[in-house]
Amino acid sequence: MSRLRASVSLIRAVVACVVVLAVVPLAADEGMWLFNAPPVRTLQERYGFTAKPQWLAHLQKSAIRMNVGGSASFVSADGLLLTNHHVGLDCIEKFSTAEHDYAKAGYLARTRAEEKKCADLEMNVLMSIEDVTPRVAGAVTPSMSAADADKARRAAMNTIEKESFDKTGLRSDVVTLFQGAEYQLYRYKKYTDVRLVFAPEASISFFGGDPDNFEYPRYDLDICFFRAYENDKPARVDHFLWMDPAGVKDGDLILIAGHPGGTDRMNSIADVRFLGDELFPFFLDFARRREVLLRAFSERNEENARRAHDELFFSENSRKAWIGYIDAAQDPAVMKKKAESEAALRRKVESDPELKQKYGDAWQTIERADAVFRSIFRQHALLESGVAFDRVLFRKARTLVRLAEENSKSNSERLREYRDSNRESVEQQLYSEAPVYDDLQTVELASGLSHLVEVLGLDDPLVLQVLAGRSPSARAYELVHGTNLKDVAFRKQLAAGGKAAIETSDDPMIRLARIVDPKSRELRTAYEQRVEEPLRQAYAKIARASFATSTGETYPDATFTLRLGFGTVKGFEEAGRSLPWRTTIGGAFTHAAEHSNQPPFDLPRSWLDAKPRLNLDTPMNFLSTVDTIGGNSGSPIVSRQGDFVGIFFDTNLEALGWDFVYDDRQGRAIAVDVRAILEALQQIYKADNILSELKQK
Amino acid sequence: MSRLRASVSLIRAVVACVVVLAVVPLAADEGMWLFNAPPVRTLQERYGFTAKPQWLAHLQKSAIRMNVGGSASFVSADGLLLTNHHVGLDCIEKFSTAEHDYAKAGYLARTRAEEKKCADLEMNVLMSIEDVTPRVAGAVTPSMSAADADKARRAAMNTIEKESFDKTGLRSDVVTLFQGAEYQLYRYKKYTDVRLVFAPEASISFFGGDPDNFEYPRYDLDICFFRAYENDKPARVDHFLWMDPAGVKDGDLILIAGHPGGTDRMNSIADVRFLGDELFPFFLDFARRREVLLRAFSERNEENARRAHDELFFSENSRKAWIGYIDAAQDPAVMKKKAESEAALRRKVESDPELKQKYGDAWQTIERADAVFRSIFRQHALLESGVAFDRVLFRKARTLVRLAEENSKSNSERLREYRDSNRESVEQQLYSEAPVYDDLQTVELASGLSHLVEVLGLDDPLVLQVLAGRSPSARAYELVHGTNLKDVAFRKQLAAGGKAAIETSDDPMIRLARIVDPKSRELRTAYEQRVEEPLRQAYAKIARASFATSTGETYPDATFTLRLGFGTVKGFEEAGRSLPWRTTIGGAFTHAAEHSNQPPFDLPRSWLDAKPRLNLDTPMNFLSTVDTIGGNSGSPIVSRQGDFVGIFFDTNLEALGWDFVYDDRQGRAIAVDVRAILEALQQIYKADNILSELKQK
Questions:
Q1: Other CB atoms within 10 Å distance of the CB of residue B362
Q2: Is the preceding peptide bond at B217 cis, omega within 30 degrees of 0?
Q3: Which of A131, A265, B306, B352 has the most neighbouring CB atoms within 10 Å?
Q4: CB within 8 Å: A277 and B328
Q5: Which chain A residues are closer than 8 Å to B473 by Cβ?
Q6: Residue B358 CB coordination number (10 Å)
Q7: What are the distances in angstroms from CA A575 to CA A652, B147, B297?
Q8: Is this prediction's ipTM beyond 0.90?
Q9: What's the whole-model pTM score?
Q10: Nearest-CA distance from B328 to chain A in Å?
C-alpha cells in the first residue's frame, strides 16, 4: 500500500531535498510530471500519443487530493468519487464504533440520506497554476543571511497566498519545486463535507494483509466511494472520469494523475547517504516501535483491535516501505549509479568557469547543512515532527498553544501552517468530533515519552520538566486522564480565550505543550534557517546547473502536488518466474483456498456466497510501469481516451527503490482493474444505485 | 515469561557489572542467595525456619540448569524432570515438522520408548562448590596492566577448570561472583541425552499469549516433563522433589531454587544510566526488529509460523522485559533511591582514610570503562555478540573458524568458551542435527546485515567486504543458499581438516566468518581488556568496601548459577483493585469465554472436552514475593518440608524493575500450582504413567 499520511508528510518535509539532475537521460517511463510542463514530446515520440491541453485540463480537474494522505478522482457529475479503501479508512474508522465496525464489515449507502459524513476529511481539486518564482525568489537577495532569507521567503509566500485567497476564495498554496529553483501558486477548490457511499469489507480491500503488501500477485479490491457535498447537497462537478468497462490489455499505454508524496531521486550522494544511514533508519525504528506497540494493544481484545486498526496498518505499511527504501540506499550498485551521475554533472560545472562560479559551491553547502541536520534531526523529529508526542491530544494542545501565539503576529511572520489562507484547514482538524480513546492515547504517549528519554537522557532539563518526577508510563496515564481536551467545546473555549486563556490554563496537556514549545520552536528555527534554507539555495543552484547543461523535458521530485505519469501495462520476471500482467477474481479464490481461508487470506462471506454468480476470469489487479510513490494511492489510471480503467493502490517491493532511482526492469505499479470494480458492485454488492450513476458519461 | 536465553546470556555477559551494596538494608524477601552462603539467619528470624545443610543439599541436587536458558527440577528417581513449556520449546520445535507440530498439539509418551530425544539440549546439576578466590585473584598483581591482568586471570580460570575436569570428569566452571570479589569453582553433573515425556498444547501453556505475558491474573499450564538419560537408559538420581498435592495457601513461606540469569541491582549510578539510556534501548530495538521480522514471516502461512514460533515468542518476551527494565531506569524515583544508596557508601569510604586509599577510585574507574564501552558496544554487539549474524549458519561457521584457530593455542591462552573443559558443550551445539530453514535464515540474515550497514555505514571497509557489492537482502540470499554448512557431515569434515581446511574453504559462510573474525576479535579484546577487566577490579573494590562497612547476610547479583530465594504466598493491590493470591482452573474457562475463545485466549479442545470432569476450584497459578528474574523460569517452588508445590514461570510487569531494585509492594512472581498440574495430568491428559511415577516418594 502506498498511502502517504500526515506523519509521512512531516517526515518528507524534513527530508525535502529535491531536484532533478537531467544530465542522465530519463529511463523509459520515468517521471512524475507537472501538469503545466507535461512530457508532450516524450509521449508523442514514445507512444505516438498527443496530450492535448483540454485532455490534460479534464484529467487535472477530475483528480482529487485527499489531505489525509492520498489521491482520488471524480467519477460522476454528482460528486461521486473513488479512492482506495486504505485512504478512506481514516474517515471510516472515525464514525465506526464497537457496535458498528464499518471498516471491517463494509458499508453501502442505498440512498443519499444514508451516506455517512467524515469527521474531518479535506479534499482539494487543483484549479489553476501560476508561476510566482520571480516574486518569491526576488524576496531574497544574495547578501542576506540564511536566517533573513528564510524569513523573507516565508513572508513572500504567506503574502502571495493570502492575496490569492482573499481574491479567489480558493485554497492557495505556494509550492516549492526543484527545491527552490521554481515557485508556483496552486489554487485548489476545497471540499470539507465528504460522505461515505460504499466500502467493501476490510478483508477483501486488504486481502493478503501485511504479508502480501508490496508483493505480487495480488487480489485486492482496495476501493471505496465517497461523495463530495456543498451546502449539504451533492456537489455538481464539471469534470469527472467515465469508467470504461472495456478496461486495459497487455501492452496498453496508460496514464496516471495523482499526488505522489515525496521522492529523493536527485539528492546529492552525501545527502542520500545521510538519509540511508541515519534518517530513514530512525523513522524505520519509529515505525517498528509503533507496530509492536499497536499490535500488542490490539491483541488484548477485539475492540482494541478496532481502535488501533488504521494506525497499525499504517505502521506496518511504513515499516515495509522504509525497509525497501533502506535496502536500495544500502545497495552498492544503486549508490554507484547515483555517484556516477553526480560526478558527470560536477565535471561539467567544474569545466565551465561561469557555471563553476555560479553553482560550484552547491555540493559543499549541502554537506554543511547536512552536518547541522545530523546533529539535530532526532530531537527535531521527536519534539517538532511529533515522534514523541504525535498523539491526538498533544497535537490539539500544541495547535491551541501555537494558535494563540501566532495570532499575535502579522500573517507574513507566522509559522507557515498558521497563515491566514490555511486557517480553515487548521480549524477543521482542531475541532474534529472524531473519537479519542484514552487507553490507546496512554500507551502511545508512554512509548513516545520513553523514546524522548532515550534520546535526550534522563538528566535533560526538558525531560525533567516533561516527566515531572514520574516514569514515562505513569506520566502518560496522568496526562491523558487529566486533560479536558477530549471535549470539543473545551477546545473552542480555550481558543476563544486567546493567549491569556492558554497561559493560565492548568490543563495538564496544555501545560505540557507550553513546556515543550520553546525548545521545539528553537529546533524548528534551526532546521529552517540552518538546514532547509541552505539546502534550498544549494539545490536551486544544482537544478540550474542541470538545466544549463542538458536539454529535454524534465520533472521535479514529488511534493504531494498533482502530477502526471505514464507507462505500459506489463508483467515482469522474478527469480526465473514470469509474473503476468493481471490476476483474476478466480485467482483470489485460489489464493484464499491455499491458505485455508484464514486471516489475512480470508475472503468475506459476501464473496464466498457470490462465487457461483461471478465471472472468475474478470481481471482483478494489473501491473504497469507508471512511475509512482506513496501519496499516489487512489490515483485514477486512464486510457488514451482519458477514461478510467483502474485505480492505483500499491507497488511491488522492487519499486520501493524508486524513491531514489526509477527502474522498470522489475519495479511495477499495481492497480485494481475497472472490470473487477464493476463486477463486484454488480454481482457481490448489488450496488445498483452506484452502477447506474457510473454509467452516465 | 522469564526465560533467559542464549542471546540474553550474551547480553548479560556484556553487561556484567554486578555487586551488592549491602549498606542499604535488604528488603523483606529480597535475595538470590548462594547455596554455600544461604540466608540462614534471615530465614530463622523472619520465618522461624531452619535451613539445615541436608535440606539445602537435597534441594541443590534436585535443581537443574537448562542450558538453553532456564531451570528445572527432578521429580522422580528415574530422572523425570519438570520445567516450563517455554523452556522446553526450543527442544520440542527441533523435532517437530510441518506434519507433526508437537509444540502446538502437545505430546504424551505413554511408554519410555515413545520419549522423544532433544537434538542438542544440555542440562547441568550442581554437585559441589569450591572457593578459588585466592588462586584466581592471586594470578593478578596490582602492577599489571589491565590487558595482562585479563590474560593472567583467564589463564588461571582455564587451568583450574581443566584440572578439575581431568580429575572429576565433571563440567567445571569458575564463576565470578561479586564481579571479581569472589571466584568459585562450580562442578556440574552434565546430561546431554534428554527426552520429552509430556508437553501440553501451546495454547494452554501460553494461554493469553503476549497480551497476558508479564500480567496477572494468569491461567497458564506452562509445564513440560522431560527425562534425563545416561547410556541410553533413564538416569537414576538420588535427589528429586516429591510433588505435594496439598500445595500452598495464602501467607505460606515458600522457597525457590533456580538459575536467575542476570541482574543489575548494584551497578553504580553512572553505569545504570548507561544501561538505561543506551545499552538496553539498543537491545530493545533489536528485539523489536526481530519481532516485526518474524511476525511478518509467520503471517505468510502456517508452516512459516511453526518455523519461527519459538524465536518469535522469545522476541516478544524480550521486548516486554526490556520495556519493563527501561521504564524502571527511566523512573526518576527509582534512580533517586539508587543514587542515595550509592552516596551513602561513598560517604563512608571518603570518611575513612584507609577505605578511601584502597577503594576510593572505584567509581571513576567505572566511568572511564563505561566511556570506552559506550564507544564500542554497538559494534561489539553486532559483530561479537551476534546481533548482525546471530543466525544458526553463521554461528556454526564462526565456531569452525575459531575452533581451528584456538586449537593451535595452549588451553590457558584460549578464548574462554574454547577451553578444554568446555569442548564437549561446544561440539554438541556444532554438530546438532536440529533443522535449518533456508527461508527463515535468509530473512534474518538480511535484517542483520542491514543493521550492520546502519551502524557502520556503507563505506566501512568491513561492510564493503561483507556485502561484496550486493544489497543486504541479495547478499543474505546468496550466503544462505550457497553454504554447505547445513550438512552435519560437512561441518565435521571441515573441523577435522583443521586450520588448513578452514583457510582454503570457499564455502561462502566460512569465508564470511573469516572476513568478520579479525575485527570481531579486536572488539572482544577491547571489551575484555578495557571494559570488563577495569570494571571487575572496580566493582571488586566497591564490594569489599561494602563488606567492610556493613554487617548482615548478603548475596551477589544473578549470574545464571544456582540460587536460593524465599518469600510469601501473597496477592497485591493495583489501581484500587485487589488481586488475590491465586487463580483457578474455572477462571481459565471464564477468561477464554470473555474473549470468545479466540487466539491467544483459546483453550485447547482437550480442556473444553474435559470441563465436566474438572474441579474448577483447583488453584491454577499463584503469586508470591520470591525474588527472581529471567533464567529462573522452570525453577521448583518448595514448601518448608522441601516438597514441590509449584513451578515458577513468570512475574508481573511491576517485578521487571527488580533488575535494578527489589520491591515487593506490587512486584510478584507467578507460579503454576502443583494442584493444577496433577488435576490436568489426571483429568485432561490421562497421563497415568506420569502420575504413578510422581507418587513415589
A1: 24
A2: yes
A3: A265
A4: no
A5: 327
A6: 15
A7: 14, 51, 19
A8: no
A9: 0.90
A10: 7
